[in-house]
Specification:
The chain is an alpha/beta fold. The chain is about 60% helix and about 5% strand. It has a five-stranded mixed β-sheet with strand order 4-3-5-7-6, with helices on one face. The chain has a two-stranded antiparallel sheet with strand order 1-2. About 45% of the residues are buried.
Amino acid sequence: MSSITTSALDTPVRRSVERTCDDLAIFVLAVVALVASLTFRDYGLGWDDYTHAEYADLLLRMYGSGFKDTGALSFANLYMYGGGFDMAAALLHKIIPLELFETRRLLGAIVGLIGLAVTWRLARRIGGPLAGLATLLLLTLCPTFYGHMFMNPKDAPFAVSMIILILGLVRLAEEYPSPSPRTILIVGLGAGLSIGCRILGGLALVYALVGFVPLLIEEARKQGPREAARRFAHVVYVLLPGLVLGYLIMGLVWPWSIMEADHPFKALTYFSHFFEKPWKEMFDGALVSVPDMPWSYLPTLFALQLPEVLLWLLLAGIVGTFMSLSRVDVTARRKTIFLMLTLAATLPLVIAMVKRPALYNGIRHFVFVIPPMAVLAGVSFAWGMNWLKDNHRRWQPAALAMFMFGLLLPLSEMIRLHPYEYTHFNHIAGTVRTADNFFMLDYWGLALKQASDGLREELVERQEVPPQGRKWKVAVCGPQRPAQVALGPDFTIGWDSQSADFAMTLGEFYCKGLTAPVMVEIKRDDVVFARVYDIRGRAISTLLAIPAP
């Protein structure tokens, strides 16, 4: 993946292509911003939204009381996560005319857009404008990343924070041993935000320690061991202000982490053995207990949920990285950069496959590996196009056409699935039509929003009003409080189906299919995401298909 040089005669053309790629990238970002601004309200609430909103209130109350009110430091298990996104959403809600949960969805879109922009600039820095544009398209049209950026308050901001940190590390490798103040700032900002989101951000230290080995070996060979050690010590020294900044940012967004020196390590231990309830999830057609997920859980889901074009180009990028390590014509700096990217894209998955922690909710906890995957894939595409230009120019249009076709596949699925893009399964899996029989789709429970909207519209159309002296009663199989928000004040909700008027159920395995008239059915690509039943006058013992844990 070494850079391709061009002659002076090609310079005007090359500049024109570069300008076109940059203009197209800005256009893509503008389109995403426009689409997000028009659709962010479509994304419903999930299981954790209310809890995160409560966490934000507790954090702001703690800061407002001068740390006298410390309820945030023991709230659920969220005190072991950072609350930066939650606090930002709560503060933004105070100044813009949107409902709280709409504000959270809007902020998610903004953070996701920042992640897209940073990933584009990273790939452009490494592989040039074409690599940047290809990476941006691959990440934008990755339904898993796109869907999570609207509704995931932990994993999506963490992914954005990590790619900021990786950008800082790449700049550090390029500028070594004299990093610029901007690079020091980016490293500090990325470190503080990423570890302040999830302690797993500390993995970046491993990326750096292992990734910098080729560069340090080259330094020792050219400068001598003593001078190389001095230059390394100098880099560590000049990075200290950035690391101090990172620590302050971490403490601001994750105050529990700095209350005692060992708290980050306690969090790491906790999440290494995380398991709260003995629930089961659907994996490969079987109900599997969360702590007993096989080692194949993550590789299977990544292979079946990422777009095919991203998978193939990612594989090429990983192979190219390891091949470059033994090539003398590739500089040590580029070896370091690609090694760090490859570690960022693969190491967390390898660790999970070996350690086998409790795994659930598909790949949402590992969304942070998708941006570096996209960078490797985008750079691979650009390298391939440059190679074809120099060796088989007539094949370039065919390669470009294949790339564009590969992008159209996830795009069409995203349009069909909206606003459930995160449930995407690729054509290798047979799309959601086939995957519905083997895997969980809407594990976050977003479809209750559309089901609630449908129920209200149906009652208005029928001109029905609740019985005298009470509200409509809805039995819900899914996240309760989000359903209440979606239904509004004219409804009461709960698990009890005995006295309910309607039953609202997700399309997941743990909700029963009821023998009652269907009032509302939310479907995407012939797959049921949610239903509302009219159960008035019917004896419905339970909404659960399996016993509650």
